Amino acid sequence: MNQALKTLEERGFIQQCTDLDALSRLMDQGPVTFYVGCDPTGPSLHIGHMVPFFAFRHLREQGHRGIALVGGGTARIGDPSGKSEMRKMLSYEQLDANSASIVRQLDRFIRFDDVTAYTDNNKHWLADLNYIDFLRDIGRHFSVNRMLSFEAYRMRMETGLSFIEFNYQLLQSYDFLELYRRHGCRLQIGGDDQWGNIVAGMELIRRVEGAEVFGLTFPLVMTSDGKKMGKTEQGALFLDPAITTPYDFFQYWRNVTDTDVLRFLLMFTFLPADECRALAGGDVNAAKERLAYELTALIHGAAEADKALAGARAAFGGGGDRSAMPTVELPRARFEAGYPVVDLFVDAGLASSKSEARRLVQQGGAVVGGEAWTDEKAAVVASLLDASGELVLRAGKKRYARVVAR
To answer: Which among 218, 230, 150 has a CA at the least distance from the CA of 190?
Structure first.
């Protein structure tokens, strides 16, 4: 097997490939151009989007050329794959803004050089398509029966599939054809929920150009307890620090289950595989901290990773800079008057409502200054602040806030 594919296999990326042996032989002959697409349905990618882009970097490091395709055109319709209902339609202006934001995020991670890695936007060839010509030239190659055999469409047929979504597979297939024509692209990679769309694009190129191209998909990563990877109590784990702070991002990975550590080290870091196995086979907490640090540095930079690490160590009593913890400033006068503990946990962002804060106290999950707080009616007073006017709160075992009284 080609070394690039061996690397992906060793690190747990490969789920399905249309012809692994033939793809391996093609890669042995020289650099292969590949692409992965993502639709700008929001202003930020989340960690689930990033699996193919980690694979992108591995393939690039082995000498292959990658295209990150932003779906500014396909997002005008919406991909039904993995969805139980139709996506919300966004304005073209919003899609353009989202596209620009996503390209900036990917550039920080991939470092586009327009030689070995570059980006494109499918609105360049989709936005002004003539519909009649498109149906005559492209649509005639698609079988409705064949399309309905794919899981994405079968699932949506049960809840209702709009005609506009039904066109999505044709458009994504056309993307592959355009990238083959423009850049000699021979491989599409993506999550396993894209298998049907990828195969359809391959068949289109075979019919129109008589060329052999390939598809490679990666697993939709789940945690060992069956939850979708990257899902938190607050929602998805976004790359945008304004949505998911670097500290919260770090803490997610620091708190993964023991059984997920090796898999995530291999997939979400670029540490050598032997080092990943050695870390996972040693002190599991040290391995989790290393996973969290490496991944936070990749997404947010080393400086933010250092701050998140210091904040986590301070929160968990291992030393470090408390200023790196999630911090909120609150009026000192509230403490001097007696700050109701329920209000305090809401204002510190550790509870979304007073009822949630009340349950937290009742269940023994509220900690104030290192001491469990059990009286929901009691007030937190100024004497509990330290000499710097600070107080550390904890909700449950993993969520902290540093309160600064001003």
So the answer is: 218
